[in-house]
Design a protein that fits this description.
The chain has 181 residues and is mainly alpha-helical. The protein has helices at residues 5-31, 48-72, 88-112, 116-142, 149-177; strands spanning 79-80, 84-85.
Length: 181
Amino acid sequence: MNMHAHKLFLLLINLIGGIAVLVSYAIGIINHPETRGALWGGVPRAIMPVYTVSMFTAAAGYLAFTYFILFCMDPDEAVIAGHFSYGLFPWLYALVLVPSALWMPLTFYMIANPSHIAWTGIRVVLGIAGIASLLLLGALITVQPAALVWAHRLAVIGCAAFCLQTAVLDAIVWTSYFPAE
């Protein structure tokens, strides 16, 4: 199998970035058992189930749109928003995954050492991940040709679910409830 260079790059970013996110979460939870509940900040108990459901739908959505981008699109034919090539996708993924891997370590640092700089860092990484996920959604909506209509629709719906988690619940709702400094 001869994989296109852009797809190989995207796959590599997903492997490295995905592992980095999962490892950062595992290390954070394992190394901070006494404060892991503090990750919720001031999020009201009443909306915590919304987060739980959203995390699962966001993960499923991530798999759906990643499947579409990796296996249903032809990188040589894809045009995003009339101007960009398939090569934009790996960079958007990197802008989601790198900040996502930084969120938990920064948050545990903020819990132990509250400061304006740490809080700003957390908001920046969540903001970048949220904006990048919205850009991914825009790229998916505007990509031409949108081969396999059913897979494209599923990818857009999945990315919308991912955006709900990253751009709304994490970057806006969570930061509004987390006790800064």
